[in-house]
Specification:
about 70 residues; 1 helix; about 15% helix
């Protein structure tokens, strides 16, 4: 997974509709070719920007329980 340097200041951030206001969430922001991920408790903090393919592989690994998260 390679982090891509990006300015995320204009990104529209979203979090899951299943997320409740407990503060332990991640938010995603979309670029045309990448996705930014940040901690919802720290919206002005750093964001990790990864390719859409890398995020897709991560999600598949979590769903299939190949990753212990």
């Amino acid at each position: 997974m390679i982090a891509l340097p990006r300015d995320t200041s204009g990104v529209l951030w979203r979090k899951s509709t299943r997320s409740q206001d407990q503060g332990a969430c991640v938010e995603l922001g979309a670029f045309a070719d990448a996705v930014a991920v940040r901690d919802s408790k720290n919206p002005t903090g750093p964001a990790l920007v990864v390719s859409r393919a890398a995020l897709s592989r991560l999600a598949a690994g979590v769903r299939s329980r190949h990753l212990d998260v």
